Structures are given as structure tokens and as C-alpha cells.
Amino acid sequence: MVLTRAEQRAATRRALLAEGRRRFAEDGYHDVVFAEVAHAVGVTKGAAYHHFDSKAGLFRAVVAEVQQELGERVAATADRQDDLWERLRAGCRAFLAAGADPAVRRILLVDAPTVLGWQEWRAMDDAASVRHLVDALADLVDAGVVAEQPVEPLARLLSGALNEAALWLAETPGRDALAQTEQALDRLLAGLHVSR
């Protein structure tokens, strides 16, 4: 089957993203060489530059892809719950569990804030996942499950706690770490629940 030029370009872009993602997750941003990514997928460095203007451009695209996937995974897990409170708990737990994924840990939590800068990383995080948390908390406030309060700062507080906990989990050996973190999360969230 012969691919059109547009299909070839799309396939090359996907291959560069996949190889970049693998290397950024394994080696970290600073140890990845853009030309080696291009060579690994069988294209010239010039062809790689056609798709991404630099290693930073490739990294930015990888971060966006990983963030989007993580946001969708967390939202899908949460949406399987009918109860609003359980939806919040399930989404938070899914985020914590995702920290075991090297792409999430290394790319999103360790390298992205440094490489992209805090403001750009926060803007991307807001678009991909914090908005789900804001929506979930707003629904809980509207339903009277969580006391009336400003939702935006509450979402930022919870998001920061989840990010730190996910980093801690990724660096903490032992099977009990996730269970302990989920237990601490439940205690933290219980403080928000009006009937608890």
C-alpha cells in the first residue's frame, strides 16, 4: 500500500513523537540528542526539524501528548463512578497511580517544569487535567457535598498536593507506598466533605 505524502508526514511525526517520548522518559530531557531520535526512526535530522523546530519543540509536543493522555485516563476512571464524591476520589487515585509510569514521572513531573518553565507547564497542566479537577470540585460544591468556597484555589491546592505525592511515590520503593498515599489522600479529602 502506497502512502500519500500527508500520510507519510503524519507517520513520521508519530514515529518521532514515540521515539522522543521513550527517550525522554528513560534518559531525561538533557541526555536526549535530537539527531539520535531522528536516526532511530530512519529520518534525517533535517526531516526531524521539519516536524519539530528543535529538541525543545519535540519535548513540548511529547509533554502535551502525555498530559492529554493522563487527563483522559483520569477523567475516564472518574467517570466510571456515579457518585460525585467517589468520582473525585477515583480521579485522584488514578492520578497517583499514573506516577508509576516513567513518562508521567520523568517527563511531566520532573523535566517539564524546568525545561518549559513554570508558567508554560502550568498552562499546559491547566488545559489537560486541572480543568477536570475544577469541574469535579464545582459539581461537589453545587451538590452541597463540599462546603461553598472558591473552587479555583481549592483545585490548585489539591493539584499541587497530588503532584508532590505522585513524585514522592515515584521515588519511594515498596508496595505499601501507594496504599499509604491513598490513605492519606482519603483523610485529606474527608476534610472537604461536609457530612464527615
Automatic annotation (TrEMBL):
Gene3D superfamilies: Tetracycline Repressor, domain 2. Keywords: DNA-binding, Transcription, Transcription regulation. Pfam families: TetR_C_41, TetR_N. Residues 10-70 form the HTH tetR-type domain. The keyword Ribonucleoprotein does not apply. Residues 33-52 bind DNA. GO terms for molecular function: DNA-binding transcription factor activity; transcription cis-regulatory region binding. PROSITE patterns: HTH_TETR_2 (PS50977). The keyword Cell cycle does not apply. This is TetR/AcrR family transcriptional regulator.
